[in-house]
Specification:
Number of strands: 11
GO cellular component, one term: cytosol
Helix content: 40-55%
Binding site for NADP(+): 165-167, 231
CATH superfamily of the largest domain: NAD(P)-binding Rossmann-like Domain
Bound molecules: NADPH dihydro-nicotinamide-adenine-dinucleotide phosphate, 5,10-Methenyltetrahydrofolate
Domain Tetrahydrofolate dehydrogenase/cyclohydrolase catalytic: 6-120
Number of helices: 10
CATH architecture of the largest domain: 3-Layer(aba) Sandwich
Strand order of the largest sheet: 1-11-8-7-5-6
Function: Catalyzes the oxidation of 5,10-methylenetetrahydrofolate to 5,10-methenyltetrahydrofolate and then the hydrolysis of 5,10-methenyltetrahydrofolate to 10-formyltetrahydrofolate.
Subunit structure: Homodimer.
C-alpha cells in the first residue's frame, strides 16, 4: 500500500486565503492585526523562516515588522524591546525566534512577553490554559498538525496517538491537543524504552525529535497516520551548495506502510506559518474585543 501524501503546503495556502478575508473584514472595523518578530543573531535557517513569516503576514494584509538584533545583544536590551512591543497598540503578536544565541535566557524572555500577545503560546499562562482546557494562544506547529489530522481523519476519538519529543514548543502542547481531542496519548522521548515498539502501537504518530530519518518504516503500524514535524538539513552532496531537507521519519520506507503521511518540505512547516497568522488575528480580536469574522 502507498500512503496518501498529506499536502500541508496546499492546506496552508487555503488557510492563508481565508485569513486574508478575515483581515479584510477586520479593516472595516478599524482593526489591522500586527505581528512583530524578533530575531537575535544570524542563524541562516532562522533568517529564512523569519523572512517567510514577514512576507506571508503582509500578503494576508497584516502589519508585520522584523526586529533584527546582533548576537551580542545584552539580555536587558532584548527585554526592553519586548516591553516596548508589549506597550505598542499596533502590535498584537510577538514572536521571539528560538533558539536564542548563548548568553540569553529564553525562559526570562518568554516570561516578559504579554500573554495576550504571545502568539507562540509559550508563556506559562497560555501553556497552563491549554492544559486546563481554557481559551489560550496555542503553539503554532501543534495547531497546524491538528488541522492536518482532523482533515485527514475527521473525529480522532479513541485513536492511540504517540508523540515523539517533549519540547515546550512542540511535543508537550501536541500531547495536550491530542488528549483534548479524546486520543489515548503516549509521550515518548530519549529515555523511552523500546521506542520502535511504542511507535508500532500508534494509529497516529507525530515525530518531533530533530533527528534525520530516525523513524524507520518498520516502526510504523500499517495504515497509521504519520505527521513528520522534523526539519533537518543534511550535509550537502558533493558539488552541491545546500544539503537536502528531510524530516524525522524515513519517508520513502514509511510511505509504503502508513495510511497517510506528511512530506518534508511541504507538510507541517507551511502550516506553522499559517497558524502564526491565525494566532495573530485571534490575539488582535481579543485585544480589541471584537468577534473573529471567520467565527
Ligand atoms: N515544521 C515546523 O514548523 C517546526 C519544526 N520543528 C522541528 O521539529 C524538530 C523538533 O523540534 P523541537 O521540539 O523544538 O526539538 P527539541 O530539541 O527541543 O526536542 C527534541 C525532543 O526529541 C527527543 N529526542 C531527541 N533524541 C531522541 C532520540 N534519539 N530518541 C527519542 N527521543 C529523542 C528529546 O528527548 P529528551 O526530552 O529526553 O531530551 C526532546 O524531547 C526539529 O527538527 C525542529 O527543527 C520545530 C518547530 C517547528
Ligand atoms: N519562537 C519560535 N517559534 C517557532 O515556531 C519556531 C522557532 N521559534 N524556531 C524555529 C522553528 C522552526 N520553524 C519552522 C517554521 C516554518 C518552516 C517551513 O516553512 N518549512 C518549509 C520549508 C523551509 C525550507 O525550505 O527551508 C516546509 O517544511 O515546507 C519550518 C520550520 C518554526 N520554529
Amino acid at each position: 500500500m502507498t500512503a496518501h501524501i498529506i499536502d500541508g503546503k496546499a492546506f496552508a495556502a487555503g488557510l492563508r486565503q481565508r485569513l486574508a478575508e478575515e483581515v479584510a473584514a477586520l479593516a472595516g472595523q478599524g482593526v489591522q492585526p500586527g505581528l512583530a518578530v524578533v530575531l537575535v543573531g544570524e542563524d541562516p535557517a532562522s533568517q529564512v523562516y523569519v523572512g517567510s513569516k514577514e512576507r506571508m503576514a503582509k500578503e494576508a494584509g497584516m502589519a508585520s515588522t522584523v526586529h533584527r538584533l546582533p548576537a551580542e545583544t545584552p539580555q536587558a536590551d532584548l527585554l526592553a524591546l519586548i516591553a516596548s512591543l508589549n506597550a505598542d497598540p499596533a502590535v498584537h503578536g510577538i514572536l521571539v525566534q528560538l533558539p536564542l544565541p548563548p548568553g540569553l535566557d529564553p525562559q526570562a524572555v518568554v516570561l516578559a512577553i504579554d500573554p495576550a500577545k504571545d502568539v507562540d503560546g509559550l508563556h506559562p499562562i497560555n501553556a497552563g490554559n491549554l492544559a486546563i482546557g481554557a481559551p489560550a494562544l496555542v503553539p503554532c506547529t501543534p495547531s497546524g498538525c491538528m488541522m492536518l489530522l482532523r482533515d485527514a481523519l475527521g473525529d480522532l476519538t479513541g485513536a492511540r496517538a504517540l508523540v515523539l519529543g517533549r519540547s515546550n514548543l512542540m511535543g508537550k502542547p501536541m500531547g495536550q491537543l491530542l488528549l483534548a481531542a479524546n486520543c489515548t496519548v503516549t509521550m515518548a522521548h530519549s529515555r523511552t524504552r523500546d521506542l520502535p515498539e511504542e511507535c508500532r502501537r500508534a494509529d497516529i504518530l507525530v515525530a518531533a525529535v530533530g533527528r534525520p530519518r530516525m523513524v524507520k518504516g518498520d516502526w510504523i503500524r500499517p495504515g497509521a497516520t504519520v505527521i513528520d514535524v522534523g526539519i533537518n538539513r543534511l550535509p550537502p552532496a558533493p558539488g552541491q551548495q545546500k544539503g537536502k531537507l528531510v524530516g524525522d521519519v524515513d519517508f520513502d520506507a514509511a510511505k509504503e506502510v502508513a495510511g497517510a503521511i506528511t512530506p518534508v518540505p511541504g507538510g507541517v512547516g507551511p502550516m506553522t506559518i499559517a497558524c502564526l497568522l491565525d494566532n495573530t488575528i485571534t490575539a488582535a480580536c481579543r485585544i480589541h474585543g471584537v468577534a473573529r469574522p471567520g467565527g
